[in-house]
């Protein structure tokens, strides 16, 4: 299993190119199931989760080609299996995103129910409830969601909570349904907007994406399209927290600053100098950060996917920060590892109180989930001495060549590859 070895204390200077967003690419790859023409995608990040999704689609009969790095062409004209097996779903919950497209185009789908996951229970009841409202007959059989419908029928659906992949699944199901579907309480994340933009290029009729009310008028069929995936706002935010914690001056190229409002506000509040242009963000820091409290909520508020990274920065800040995690019930697993580096953090339910210290001390720590891993890397960059981050397969699920990008801006970080 690979690990990262970091020697902390180096300031970060230079340029980093931001990759395409994992969370936009995953539903967009699944959207290729909605038609029989070629879908060509650019700015697809080279990540483990993307590989898993391609494998899942290939098992269903989708043909894929990668003519050059970052470009993927998919063709779903010869789909011969309507099943997502447990072996793949268990490694990536987002596999549930094939459910809506398969059902609406082929009238049937069998998708393994994702199990619990490290950061919380994460049920998919809202996906199921929404598809049932569109007229699907749904049963749970032998650990699979089995869904059938002749043709889905548009309906008004209000999910009990705001769900990102739930909104995506229902939007993809509705584009080929008969009549109008209205999704109330829809998620507003930029990744939803990116998916909607691809679907519209494919011939879908969608209005209101980016708001909490999305209206979709179903069409008979969709056609081929090509699309450039939006920049990864979480990757960009992670590098900015790294510069906030370790100091320095970095320029992020091919970024989407307009998707990062709440994160940039918090970084500015902590003392990071932020400048932005249409597709770049510069972050500079020449002192210890000031502690900044925050609460995670749905977009456009502060994202849960940045909670661990901004907490890592707060561990070396001046003052005390109160952090409240409102989205997932068990998303503080990085806290125990950060404490091993000397961080002072108290937890009470969904609230973490971080009292900043002058410097962390390097240690061997273990990554427990994707964003927790990123927080440990940030802590390692800011710490005195050597840090080893173990089990970085989590990191590889969502960050493209993270150690190479950080080395490019002067970090002392290497990957140690060990036979598993
Ligand atoms: C997506 C993101 C993930 C991010 C999360 C919240 C992808 C591939 N993943 O995950 O990185 O952390 O949004 O921004 O885009 N819930 C239910 N029932 C459901 C669906 C959700 O109870 O049917 C609950 C969840 O347990 C959670 C909350 O709703 O507490 C939000 O989850 P959701 O937005 O669905 O997260 P994901 O789409 O899985």
What does this structure look like?
The protein is α/β, with parallel strands linked by helices and 420 residues long. It has 14 helices and 24 strands. β16 and β17 form a beta hairpin. α1 packs parallel to α7 (190-201), α8 (233-246) packs parallel to α10 (307-314) and α10 packs parallel to α12. The protein is elongated and about 65 Å long. The structure holds uridine-diphosphate-N-acetylglucosamine (UD1). Uridine-diphosphate-N-acetylglucosamine binds next to α1, α5 and α6.
Report the average pLDDT across residues. 96
Strand content of the residues, in percent?
A: 25-35%
Using only C-alpha atoms, the radius of gyration works out to 21 Å
Strand order of the largest sheet: 22-23-1-24
Small molecules in complex: uridine-diphosphate-N-acetylglucosamine
Based on the model shown, name its key terms.
420 residues; alpha/beta; 4-stranded mixed sheet; 14 helices; 24 strands; 26% strand; elongated; binds uridine-diphosphate-N-acetylglucosamine
Chain-wise SSE layout:
Elements: E1 3-7, E2 12-17, H1 22-31, E3 38-42, H2 48-59, E4 63-68, E5 71-75, E6 83-84, H3 86-89, H4 99-106, E7 108-112, H5 125-133, E8 137-141, E9 144-148, E10 156-158, H6 164-174, E11 180-184, H7 190-201, E12 205-207, E13 213-217, E14 225-228, H8 233-246, E15 248-253, H9 261-269, E16 273-277, E17 280-285, E18 294-295, H10 307-314, E19 320-324, H11 333-340, E20 344-348, E21 351-355, E22 364-366, H12 370-382, E23 386-390, H13 393-398, H14 402-408, E24 412-416
Parallel strand pairs: 2-15, 3-14, 6-7, 10-11, 18-19, 22-23
Antiparallel strand pairs: 1-23, 1-24, 3-5, 4-5, 7-9, 8-9, 11-13, 12-13, 15-17, 16-17, 19-21, 20-21
Helix pairs in contact: 1-2, 1-7, 4-6, 5-6, 6-7, 8-10, 8-12, 10-12, 11-12
Bound molecules: uridine-diphosphate-N-acetylglucosamine.
The site of uridine-diphosphate-N-acetylglucosamine (UD1) has 23 residues, from helix 1, helix 5 and helix 6.
